[in-house]
Amino acid sequence: MSTTTIPVQTAPSRVQTWRKAWFNRETAAAWIFLLPSLIGFIAFYAVPAARAVSISFTDWDLLTDPQNIGLENYSRLIADEDFWQSLRVTFAYVLFNIPIQTMIALVIAVLMDRFTKSIVVRGIMILPWLMPNVVVGLLWLWLLDPSLGIVNVFIEWLGFSSVPFLTGTNYALPSIAGINIWRHMGYTALLIFAGLQAIPGSVYEAAAIDGASELRTFWSITIPLLRPVLVFVLVTSIIGSFQIFDTVAITTEGGPVNATEVLNWFIYEHAFVRFNMGYATTISVVLFLILIVVSVVQMRIMRADESDL
Known about the structure:
The chain is mostly helical.
C-alpha cells in the first residue's frame, strides 16, 4: 500500500516578505507617481536644509567666503537677549492667533453644517485665504491707518478716540494676529466642516434618543470625533503662525519698538540687513527644532495616531 507524502509549507522569511512588499508592480507604479514630488522635496527642501545646517557653523557675510567658527553662533544665540525677545513675541502672537482662530472657525463650521451647505457660502468663506499675504497686509494697513483708515473713522464717528492699531506697542501684535485670523478662519472652518461631514449621522440620532442636550452632544460626540481634523488644523496653524513674516513686513516692519519683531523678521534682519547669514541660519535651525518639538508634543497630547470612529 503506497503512502502519499504531503509537502510541508514553510512560512516565508522576513526577507521574502520584504521583497514581495517592495518589488512588485503596485510599488513600482507608486514610486513612478511619487518621483516628481520626491525630486522636488530633495532639491528644494532636503538639500537646502542640510546646507543651512552647515552654514550655521560659519561666519558668512554673503560677500566673502564663509569661515568655519564651530559652535560660536549657537553660543552667541543663547546669550542674545534680542533673540529671546523675538521668541517671546512669536509665542505671544501664536497665543493670540491660534485659540481665537480655531474657536471662530469651529463655530462657523458647526453653523454651516447645521444651517447651510451652500457652495456659494463656502466660496465666500475661502476668499480671504486665496488673497496673497502681501495684498492682505496692504489692505489692512490702509484700513487701520490712524488718520485716514476707515476703521478709525468709524471709531471716531462713534465718539471714541482713534486707536493706534499698528503703531501702538500694546495694539500692534494683537492687530497683526487679528489680520491673520481674518485671513485664515474661513479656510480653517472649511477643514473642520469637511471633518463634520465624516461623522455618521447615526451617532447623533442615538444621542438624541438618549436625551442628550445640544451642548452635551457637541462636547461628548462632535469634539472627540473631530480630533483627527483638529490635530491637523492645530499643527499646521501653529507651524504657520511661527513662520509669520509677510504681514509684519508690510504693516509694522517689526515695530513699534520691536513689539512685532517675530523670529522670521529677526532672521531676515540678520541675513539681509546686517549681512550676517551664518547667525541668521543658526536662528533658522533653532526655529526648525522648536517646530519639531511643538508638533510632536501636540500630536502626543492629542493622540493623533488614534481615532474615536
